[in-house]
Amino acid sequence: MTSEMHIASVVVQAQPRLLDDVASAVQDLPGARIHGRSDAGKLVVTLDGSTADDILDQVRAMQQLRGVVNVALVYQHIEPEPQPGQDADEGGVHGNQGLHGLDNDNGRVTAATDMDKEFDHEHTT
Predict the structure, then answer these.
(1) What pLDDT does 102 receive?
(2) The whole model's pTM is what?
(3) pLDDT of 30 higher than 70
(4) Of 34, 30, 42, 32, nearest in space to 72 by CA
(5) What are phi and psi of 26, to 5 degrees?
(6) 76: exposed, middle or buried (Cβ count in 10 Å: 0-12, 13-18, 19+)
């Protein structure tokens, strides 16, 4: 069986007063890295794992953190791990999924483009 590398990006919306606590807890998750944050309570995070279930487990863990309002999956990329003797570029893109997020309060799927508009509006007004 070919092993795969799953890489995803998410935006975590936290209560602004608890952002430091949420950021600290997210940094402690295996495979999670914070790439940006805003005073409005948003974190830009990448996740990596061996399976889509690994990514979903990380998302679920973040959803359960005190102070987290929403975790929106923006993008997921699946890349085969290079096999011995195979050039890393030979693997190619297996696929990607994303542009949807799961609202932590009611399980509703939200288009990331809508969230981007909201984020842009917050930072341009």
Answers:
(1) 40
(2) 0.66
(3) yes
(4) 42
(5) -65, -40
(6) buried
Q: What are 25's two structure tokens?
A: 């807890």
E strands within the chain? Answer: 4-14, 32-37, 42-49, 68-80, 95-98, 100-102, 109-111
Phi, psi values for residue 60, rounded to 5°: -60, -40
Element of type H or E holding 98: strand 95-98
Furthest CA-CA distance within the chain: 53
* Residue 85 DSSP class: T
Q: How many CB atoms lie within 10 A of CB 111?
A: 12
**Percent above pLDDT 90 for the chain:** 59
User: How far is CA 98 from its chain centroid?
Assistant: 10
Can you tell me the distance from the alpha carbon of 68 to that of 74, in angstroms, rounded to the nearest whole number? 17
| Higher per-residue pLDDT: 15 or 103 | 15
